[in-house]
């Protein structure tokens, strides 16, 4: 009996690990193939860094984290809907366009809502001025921010170009 329970436990752990690997594969697919996913990830990182500089409160971090998760999840659901629509349509289809547009619109609504919440959290002018003064007093941070923005631009707009070429060659 002990041996059977042990094997079942190992099988359960193995199946759980496989499940996580599929989830990470899906996340990686969304990052590799969806520019908007890379934009959302980049904004998540930039906002977290600014939140540290701005010294937001713990409950504001919780709100930000919840919104980050919701936006990234909505973008991944949008990607899944697009893939399913593409799987089931060979040419132009009005219903396919509606499904894709509505899914993209849902992501847009959530992203705009998140931006509004961000303005409410980061809207204190005195704290914004203090952050600006702190950056001006530490020019190295300005250089790091510029370098980070260049890396962010490359990540958003140039990330997929080499992978897409490899994928095309694999499909042949």
TrEMBL record:
CDD domains, per the entry = UDPK_IM_like (cd14265)
What does the record give as the active site? 75 (proton acceptor)
Residues that hold a divalent metal cation according to the record: 34, 82
Stored InterPro entries: DAGK, DAGK_sf, UDPK
How the cofactor is bound: the record states: Mn(2+), Zn(2+), Cd(2+) and Co(2+) support activity to lesser extents.
What are the entry keywords?
ATP-binding, Cell membrane, Kinase, Lipid biosynthesis, Lipid metabolism, Magnesium, Membrane, Metal-binding, Nucleotide-binding, Phospholipid biosynthesis, Phospholipid metabolism, Transferase, Transmembrane, Transmembrane helix
Q: Which GO terms describe its cellular component?
A: plasma membrane
Q: What is this protein called?
A: Diacylglycerol kinase family protein
């Amino acid at each position: 009996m002990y041996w059977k329970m042990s094997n079942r436990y190992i099988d359960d752990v193995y199946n759980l690990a496989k499940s996580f690997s599929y989830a990470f594969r899906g996340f990686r697919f969304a990052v590799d193939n969806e520019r908007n996913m890379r934009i959302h990830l980049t904004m998540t990182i930039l906002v977290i860094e600014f939140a540290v500089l701005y010294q937001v409160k713990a409950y504001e971090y919780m709100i930000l984290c919840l919104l980050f998760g919701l936006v990234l999840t909505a973008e991944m659901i949008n990607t899944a809907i697009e893939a399913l629509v593409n799987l089931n349509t060979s040419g132009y289809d009005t219903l396919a366009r509606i499904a894709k547009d509505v899914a993209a619109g849902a992501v847009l609504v959530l992203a705009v809502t998140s931006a509004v919440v961000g303005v409410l959290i980061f809207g204190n002018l005195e704290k914004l001025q203090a952050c600006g003064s702190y950056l001006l007093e530490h020019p190295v941070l300005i250089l790091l921010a510029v370098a980070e923005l260049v890396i962010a631009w490359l990540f958003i707009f140039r990330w997929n170009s080499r992978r897409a070429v490899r994928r095309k060659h694999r499909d042949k």
